[in-house]
Design brief:
about 260 residues, alpha/beta, 9 helices, globular
């Protein structure tokens, strides 16, 4: 097991991708702290891990509040020891047209999605520096790499990529690795409202993905386990798209562009 005797925090760990990440790291031997603003969700995932024979602790944490973040890290230290791996997964995406986007909604998206990773990273880094090792993995998005809507969320996810590179360079000499994953569309509860309104939404989206399907949380979890493990010991400051080929290009666009160019 790649994470035996390791301590992992997963923010936004109470549902969707975070829930899968928490369970997968626990299966690989880690003691997992499930941090979520919704206590019930955090407790439910921690109990799943405990019922499966793993070690876990639920923490109710608002990642935009420095005191709550510090309390989370201190509770982790008391329960299991210093943090070995931090997964910055918590995020918020307001679904509003740009001209209708309220200042408060912008601030909330950016606070949860970008300020949260800043505060959480700042809280775990002192122990990592002292120990001469550690991994921070930031969950960004393809929205950081191109335009796919959600301007506030996208700007914050792009900021995460800059933060990833900056911290990787600054703390590499201390033996700490910082990387990011940029997922495409994932079949998670975050899409449930849209799917209820349009049951065929995932089928409509598949035409944009070269691999012919939207992603599953497990697709990202496999990449996360790799980047957080010693198998990726010489990888830092990297951004790994896990997007079914979305950002590589689009066959449908290419075919429409060349229509009429073929000789008759």
């Amino acid at each position: 097991m790649r994470f035996e005797n390791k301590v992992v925090i997963v923010t936004g760990g109470g549902s969707g991708l975070g829930r899968v990440l928490a369970n997968r790291f626990a299966e690989e031997g880690a003691a997992v702290v499930v941090a979520d603003i919704a206590r019930g969700r955090a407790v439910a995932v921690a109990e799943e891990i405990l019922d499966a024979g793993g070690d876990s602790l639920a923490q109710t944490t608002d990642v935009t509040d420095a005191s709550e973040v510090n309390d989370m890290v201190e509770a982790t230290r008391e329960a299991f020891g210093p943090v070995d791996v931090l997964i910055n997964n918590a995020a918020k995406a307001t679904d509003a047209d740009f001209l209708s986007l309220k200042e408060g909604a912008w601030d909330k998206d950016v606070a949860i999605t970008l300020k949260g990773p800043f505060l959480c990273s700042q809280a775990v880094l002192p122990d990592m520096v002292e120990n001469g090792s550690g991994v921070i993995l930031n969950i960004s998005s393809v929205n950081a790499l191109g335009y796919y809507g959600n301007e506030a969320y996208s700007a914050a996810k792009a900021g995460i990529l800059s933060l990833t590179r900056s911290l990787a360079v600054r703390y590499g000499p201390s033996g700490i690795r910082i990387n990011a994953i940029a997922p495409g569309t994932l079949r998670t509860p975050a899409w449930e409202e849209r799917r209820r309104a349009n049951p065929e939404v995932f089928e409509r989206l598949t035409k944009w993905y070269p691999l012919g399907r939207v992603g599953e949380p497990e697709d990202v979890a496999g990449a996360a386990l790799f980047l957080a493990s010693d198998d990726a010991a010489w990888i830092t400051g990297a951004v790994l798209p896990v997007d079914g080929g979305l950002t590589a290009g689009n066959m449908q666009m290419m075919e429409e562009m060349i229509q009429g160019d073929e000789p008759s």
